[in-house]
Amino acid sequence: MADVFLSARHITKRYGGVVALQDVDLTIHAGEIHCLVGENGSGKSTLVKIITGVVQPEPGAELEIAGRRVRGLNPYDALRMGIQVVHQDLSLFPNLTVAENIAIPQYLEQHRGPIRWSTVIDIARKAVEKVGVNLAFDAPVGALPIADQQLVAICRALASEARMLVMDEPTASLTRQEVDRLFGILQDLQAHGIAVLFVGHKLDEIMEIAQRVTVLRDGRKVGTYDRQEIDRARLAYLMTGKQIAHRRRQAAGQSREVVLEVAGLSRKGNFAGVSFRLHRGEVLGIIGPRGSGKTELALALFGMNPPDRGTIIIEGQPVVIRSNADAIRLGIAYVPEDRLAQGIVASQPVSYNLIITALDRLRGPLGLISPRKRAAFCDAAVQDFDIRLASLDQPARALSGGNQQKVVIAKWLSTKPKILILDGPTIGIDVGAKETIYQVIRNLASEGVSILLISEEVSEVVYNCDRILLMKSGRIAAELAGELLTEEEVSRRMLGAAQLQRHGADEERPDRRGAHGRGADRGGPVPPHGGRGPAISRSGLRQALRRTEFYLLAVLVALSSILAVFQREFLSKENIFDILRNNAFLGVVALGQLVVLISGGIDVSFTAVATVAQYVMGVILSTRAINSALVAFLIPLPIGVALGALNALLVHYTRVHSVIITIATLNAHYGLLIFFTGGAWITDLPPAFQQFAQRKVVEFVNEAGATYGLSIFTVLWLAVAAATWFVLTYTPMGRKIYALGGNAEAARRAGFNISRIHLFVYAYMGLLAGLASFVQAGLAQIIQPNAMVGRELDVLAAAVLGGASVFGGRGTVAGTVLGVLLIAVIRNGLILMRVSSYWHEVVIGAVLLVAAAITACQERRRAYRVVRIDVG
Amino acid sequence: MWGSWSARWQARHGELLILATVLGVAAALLAVLTGGKLLVLGSVESMAFQMPLLGVLALAQMLPMLTGGIDLSIISTANFAGITAALILKQVPAWYATPAAILAALGGALGVGALNGGVVAGAGVSPIIATLATMILVKGVALVVTRGYVLSGFPTPFLVLGGGSVLGIPVPFLLLAACGALMALTLARAPFGIVEYMMGSNPTATRFSGIHTRGMLFRTYLISSFLAGVAGLIMIARFNAAQADYGSSFLLLTVLTCVLGGVDPSGGVGTAFGLGIAVVILQVVATGFNLLGLSAHLANALWGIILILVVVLRRTLSGAAGTPS
Description:
heterodimer, A: 6-stranded mixed beta sheet, 33 helices, B: two-stranded antiparallel sheet
């Protein structure tokens, strides 16, 4: 037998009083594919956490990795010893490129100093070659199909010297051919001596890939078995401790009354020419590989994905379904595939989850929910569906997966649906609990409810359905009933469908599977079986045309041209230099705000920070009579950094949204300042300071003999912009800030020191606020407490106009500088047009509102596409 | 029945109880510091006149926070509504000036709410950005209309809203009680309230349950602005004057009240009852500050510091109680 890579013995873990693992052993050989299986709550994930160093076992455990005894393993050491994890949610950074996602952890491990992008690409290329796939390096990961994202995660794991790859439920959202590809890759890795620990519960896949299987049940190890020793049924038995034999549904003498008839239903990019009939009390299965359009079809019937063409007839009446409210009115209910995201509201009480579809029927006097009706309603649901709970006030998350699913079904059954659509009703539900869901389906059918059962699991549809429609590539490929309704036959056809779907020349419908959301499918009409082309090949020009900066520049040029036509002096050099000088304050703070926004936060306290810094500077300069611009420059910076660090500390520790923390510090700083200074103005700034403020780097003389030119403050602003750009693009910290804003959980898992990132981000904002306060004092030549109050809007407007988002992960220095210029030009234009200053705020507020609304609408359209893709 | 109610009450208000105790101690301390002046009838009465402004504004802040949002524009909206009313009161001397002013003020507030709701729910803009923009926008409009001047001197019937009493109970306090009771009833028993909690925790699953979530979010901001409008009326009636930038420190106070009252800024948690306790505590502390002769600026700084202390304390308590999962 091969070498032992990892050996864990006597692993016990308790959480409080609950024993998660009890004296478990696990041995993994180098270069084997080892499956770890068990139902939910069996302790799989705890065991994985222990061997990857995320949690510590109880004393007495023995852990040996690569022949070395290990104590107190932490995630960092686990990584160094070659244990790499691909999490179920992949933990990628959607806003960063493929190359960066693959290479950055490894790069940061080995290199110090500024980032060399060529090295990053090299690391990524090597990893991709190791896996033997093709990926577009410069594509943002968020734009890739989920299967390609998984490849990115695998490449990342293999970018370093991996000896063992832990994969947590890796096939959950893959199509069959993607699973094939993944398995091919895993076998290839195995040939290179890399061990794979495959955590899962899909028995078919485990039987296909495993060499050895370790089974856990209720926190104990049942055993480790060679592939030859076991089969599917035995594995199910070992996992559950029960003999699971799903009974075949006895098709009762059902009526031939057609409840739902669908004819020629099509939706571009989703499904085409779908026709079928559903009878009263019938269970009609729709099976097909992932990505065949099943869920899209279900959502179309449920009004959440309206079709372009075709008719839907319910009980003889043609109907139009435009929203799910319409669908519910027509007697259609939908139990979604993704229970936790779409089915239940996990943190709210079970009772709320049950009554959410019945609110109108539970009204009593005054239109309020009647407690009596509500209690009766909930009790009935709990009894009818045998939901196991301690109390109706428990949050839904406290229930087991099977009971959660019963809650979802119960909430829909209370609407008395004629047609119940069940989309993957047993996904993520223990083998043992499946039967109870099947029982519910059978009972409902015998009560006359017509059921559409959508599934990828062959046995599920065969056991439960009267008829099966096989879907592939958005069309119904076959109808199976009678003696064709066997597991063998359906599997055979399903495999054919998967292969056929793959054949269509590597190509599925383009806009449903991802990457292409942004690129390829923009052009003309795309047939449902269009090209699933290679990911993203965009020309530089088209890429530039899609950038926020491009539009900003266009708007800036257009606005300036209009202004130049009406106000000649706008384009004069004096005016332009003036704009650049007078907005240096705004420009500098906006760059600080940009960094905070990218990290996923917001800082509204900077005006108070700047005012405090400025005051301290003014007081020191005037009381000590220091006549030095350099001293004036140096005083506010540490004050800004200190106050910024305070914000960082509070945001990091309390985990409350930064807007709330910084509203508090804004008021605290400002209130204390006014209290202690009495709000007095400081007017006696030293002459050296005044001279500095007048300094120009390039100087001109106009006809009148006055000098004008490029102010030192403008240069300062541009220097800060360059520095910020460098920090964000070329330093590890900069990339970590983008990473944190893109996916905070993944940043944590990547081992980034989040508290240090927070500290840097808010301290940087503080530093720039201090610097800006120096600039502002120079421009105004007077220090007064309310000089900067109210500039929050300009700063945020500039950053948001420049493409940054409060949701984090996005934004560029160029965009922010352009945003500042746009705001500056608007204000300058208003002044030149002699518009009352009261109007300025109205205009800027409106500009921000419109810009934010346009950006949000674009985002939403993009997000909608992604949602549609995900539910497939 | 009672068991489950008290269990739920404890689950929802357990930590509030601790915070209430802490601040109750602070209030007692203030009572001692002010030599008992805090507890004389005059002070209690003046509190009953002052509390409604904070209370109604806090109610206006609460609804958006329950959905995981925030409404930074409530103070601007209150002033905007106040100025709308003031303009009518000043220019329409007839008997119907007061009702017309009230209707116009609330209508104006609803207009701002529709703008907020449209941008947040319709376009999907982050509430922070959207309401910050409307905050400045609406304040700007108010400045354009008033040119920064104070509008003052309103007819007596209107002033009842701020200073009148019915059976010895101040009218503004009655208004607060009415708004608070309606809110409590709505959140606990009305379909809207239940949807509000569900949406605050998981908007997607709520939408999949057949709820028109965008419409609900729109209504949330509409009601928030309406309440801000009510606060605006109380405010100008109390001051007998309207201005574009009164009461800007209230924004912080409303957020503090909500957080103290147990509203989770990330959505889905919080009750009108908890908010009510927080309003009373903060008003007692505010009156104490007043009696101690603290400047408005120092008071403001203290509010900021208290908010920080509350969130730090809450985090420390929950960190100690939580177990790793």
